[in-house]
Design brief:
4 helices; Alpha-D-Glucose-1,6-Bisphosphate, Chain A, domain 4; 164 residues; alpha+beta; seven-stranded antiparallel sheet
């Protein structure tokens, strides 16, 4: 499949690029905004090509785990990882709430300076996905802005606090 659906989120932050970069790459800052309405625990954030991010989102009596495998890092402008759901031992598994959800998503975050602001673009693309996974992802794209949008609001608040 060469024409994969791509989710694109563009956002402008009233913060310098280096600060936005830190919010994506420093565990204590990342945990503050990633996974809105849950307790986010960063078990590991190895910011190097081949490194991993291991993220637990605690909600109610359970936890949801995500694994980030970093493939490209160009501070402070580009961060690329393969994002997947995992079990508590960090093995990649299907997403329990949506069995046809792509097991791996190619996630690219670019940050561009624009005066005192930073333009961020996040893209999400199914990676090595089956036809069913691509179809599921394409069908869910309209609702993706809800979760990402809530996280972006928390990120904007964090950036404002850090500059106060």
């Amino acid at each position: 499949m060469s024409d994969l659906p791509t989710y694109v989120l563009d956002r402008v932050f009233d913060a310098p690029r280096e600060l936005v970069w830190r919010a994506w790459t420093e565990p204590e800052l990342f945990a503050h905004w990633y996974g809105p309405n849950v307790e986010t625990v960063i078990h590991k954030l190895e910011l190097e090509v081949g490194g991993q991010g291991l993220v637990e989102m605690r909600m109610g009596d359970g936890s949801h785990y995500q694994r980030l495998d970093y493939t490209e890092i160009i501070p402070p402008e580009r961060l690329v990882c393969l994002m997947s759901h995992s079990d508590s031992d960090w093995n990649i598994i299907p997403f329990s709430m949506m069995p046809d959800w792509p097991r791996i998503l190619l996630t690219t975050v670019t940050l561009e300076e624009d005066g005192a602001q930073t333009k961020m673009r996040l893209t999400w693309v199914p990676h090595e996905a089956t036809e069913a996974e691509v179809t599921c992802f394409a069908g869910a794209m309209d609702g993706m802005g809800t979760g990402w949008g809530a996280g972006m609001e928390l990120l904007a608040e964090l950036l404002a606090e850090l500059q106060a």
